[in-house]
Amino acid sequence: MINLDHYLAENHQMAKRLDREFEYYSTLVRNELRRGNFDKAEIYADHIKTMVIELRRLNRNKIYHEKVQEVLLEMSNRKAGDEFGSSSH
Prior knowledge:
Helix content is 83%, strand content 0%.
């Protein structure tokens, strides 16, 4: 099961779907390799790579969102500090 902590709450359903598809295509790759169907296995593996790229994109969205929130909080704290400092003079 995928660790949803790596994704924004709004992306949890997408991450779950991609995780299910990842499992499905992983099984297909294994089955095709056992049968010696390397071309099909490679096509399915390409699908897996696409899912990993999308999961990474969703994770980067969360990281970006968290950094933006940190900056906004820092700016808010500075502004509050400035207002407090200027009101005491």
